[in-house]
Amino acid sequence: METINIIDAPKHVGETVRIGVWLTDKRSSGKIAFLQLRDGTAFFQGILLKNKVSEEIFEMARHDLRQEASFWVTGEIHEDERSKFGYEIQIADIELIGDSNDYPIGNKEHGVDFLMDHRHLWLRSSKPQA
User: Fold this and answer.
1) For residue 115, what are the contacts with CB-CB under 8 A and spacing of at least 6?
2) Where is 84: in which H helix or E strand?
């Protein structure tokens, strides 16, 4: 299995690959979870189907992974017209590298003064990047 960067996903459609990523955001509904991922080269969406992964991996993705956690994802690359990038990864396994328990930027918790004093954290968000 090859380790790739997200930007190289189009060259690996139909292949099982491994990518080192950070979690940008996530959402789930019933038996499916969507992970928004980044690796420094691009942003990407990972899909977890409850019946395709172990219960432990599915529950970790839904409840335990926090924004900016770092981990390896293993899965198959698929084309998807709905995706901004045009591709996504069907995740088969997650290997946690580092959790982000104390990551201080949460939804609507901090004012502008705090964010300006901690720009190195705030710049990870899409609005200040723009």
Assistant:
1) 105, 122
2) none
Please tell me the distance from the alpha carbon of residue 59 to that of residue 4, in angstroms, as a whole number. Answer: 25
Domain residue extents for the chain = 2-99, 101-130
- CATH, range 2-99: 2.40.50.140
Residue 101 makes CB contacts below 8 A (sequence gap 6+) with: 66
Q: What Rg value do the Cα atoms of the chain yield, rounded?
A: 15
- For the chain, give the longest Cα–Cα distance: 47
Contact 105, 126 (CB under 8 A): no
| Cβ atoms 24, 43 nearer than 8 A | yes
Global pTM?
A: 0.76
> Residue 29 pLDDT > 90, yes or no?
no
DSSP state of 56: H
The per-residue pLDDT of the chain, averaged, comes to 84
CB atoms inside a 10 Å sphere around CB 57 = 18
